[in-house]
Queue: 3 jobs
Job 1
Amino acid sequence: MKFSEEELKRYHRQMMLDGWGEATQKKLKNSTVFIAGAGGLGSPVSIYLAVAGIGHIQICDFDTPDWTNLNRQILHDHTRIGVNKAISAQITIKKLNPSIQVTAFPAKITPENVDALAGEADIIVDCMDNFPTRYLLNESAIRKNIPLVYGSIWGMDGRLSFIQSPETPCLRCLFPDAPPSETFPVLGTTPGVIGSLQALETIKYLTGIGRTLKGKLLVWDGGRTEFRTFKARRDPNCPTCGKR
């Protein structure tokens, strides 16, 4: 695939990075990313992947925006209330970068459809707000032998990890039990921070430039503006990856 003159101008500043150039940019253009969730985390993830030049973004969400989403879900605005979030995301992303392909899946992720939804993606980005669905994505990533970029938020705090089983612990190793479902507080800047880092982890993996958080868990304390990184440990008795 050749770049248009407009694309070369659009990506010029990132192509100036050491080791980047057109060859690395083509890796992004030839990549497919599956983003699970078009909400608080899915918004910055999809926006920054789109403007970086990911060739095909697949985004999935069965829900619709409401007023309580608009402090953080920047893919949507008040004119999109009642519109499916994946469709709304597709509209926003295509406006930001018309040269990429965007596929919207207005569907709920289930054990029966998760593999089909992820399709031939090179990587899965977990932007969900519940662990049962996160576990489904984790299992699909393992079956497909592709990485999963995990991110979660609560209030001013967030967590992030790059998971590539069997090289790393899987998500179930890190979080054996799902926390109770709840409507939790969140400041819009928190998914802005964590979602941007999820996009960065994705880009680093696809380009091969930089080091990912493979085998580590990053914890963001937004109240103190502090990052802490912990080594992730694999559970040999993990029901998901323990026998791999």
Job 2
Amino acid sequence: MLNCNHALVFGGTGMLAEATGWIVKHVNHTVVFGRNRHRLERLSNKYSEQGLKVQELDYSNTESLKHQITNAYEEHGEIDLVVAWIHSTAPDAIPTIKRQIATLQVHRQWTLVIVKGSSSHLTNIAFTENDVPENCIVKEVQLGFIYNEMTSRWLSHHEISEGVITGIQSNERKTVVGTLEPWDKRP
């Protein structure tokens, strides 16, 4: 079970919508940041009565990202959990999130769950985060594919969300959803 008062979710409106719903049900205050207004509104309509707030955000805009994290912190207090599935179009987003939360809350431990997509290069998925603040636990959810020795397919939205939920709940630092090998057999 999750012991969490305040969570931030980046990129939780599409394939992670089911995981976002699970987070909302287990956390007092959840703020979801996304680029797609329609998807944000759909989540808001479904979960706003359970403490969900949504905010449109371009993760590649570092100043706006820092500002939105600060706003969430000021409104709901210290941040316990961050789930981030941020594509390579915003390479500074994860380091910015780590630095900004480390600046805001020096003494409170928090968990960062980074979701790494299966359409990335294997080296990007397997890359381990560095520059981790002392009070931060980094967990990685590595999304692979399903392979049955004959055919392969990408993970479904449900499988991805279930894997992220498992990663959040697990004491392990790495959760692989599906398989990453043999990489050349991916769809």
Job 3
Amino acid sequence: MSKITWIASYPKSGNTWIKIVVFCALRGYLNLNELGDLIPNFSIFPNNMKGKDFDNQADIRYKWLDAQKKLTSENKNNIILKTHISAGKYDVGIFPSPECTLNALYIVRDPRDVAVSYSKHFNTSISDAVRRMMSKTHILNAQDRSVGNKGAEFTSSWENHVTGWKNASFPVLFIKYEDLLEYPAQNISKLLEFMNIQPQISIEEIVKLTNFSNLVGQETDSGFGEASPHTRFFRKGAKAQWKKIPSKSFQLLENKCHDLMTEFGYKTHPKKKKK
């Protein structure tokens, strides 16, 4: 039986970027519109198994385990899948299945920058993006452009998402989005070694192909199926974008996630409680 390597993140944190890095390493070239063929979104598979009795999109979770078992039993080689689903215990059991999982690569990003990118991608306000990011019951449904017609994804809150994957029972390599920006060669080498991938081209070539300006150029020339109707998928790709926005917009997020943000080196200014 094969096993699954998960490329996971909270939405708008960079797991598509990681997927592109892995694609270039395995194929030796870059074509944005071939990404899904090599590294598909997991939710495609349980969504395709849905029965007519599933009136609620959230019921896709009843097919999670069946989809994982089917994928691992039908493939001889290990599989790489992308997901935004929060890891942990659900009413249908544990996701992802430890029995079907080899390991996971998780990319974490400053949640304030996630909120900025989220608001642009989904054409909503910063305050609404923060509200969604703090909701333990938040779900990206099939109407959300980032998922397309691929079934619902249970994202939960940013805090729950990061903590769930951090506490998984299988090996998980955490890569910070900001570190990948600043030290691309070092972090690409680290993640490929973790995934036991011998790249078809040099790390330097992968860095060049996955440079943000090159990704913008490819999306401009050829389009990208994961793009939003509101903005380009590869919009800024920068860090600390949140600093250009009034800090009070992120106060609730900083107050709630102070400890976890501090753990990953994201400086916060939580509002002190009045005595």
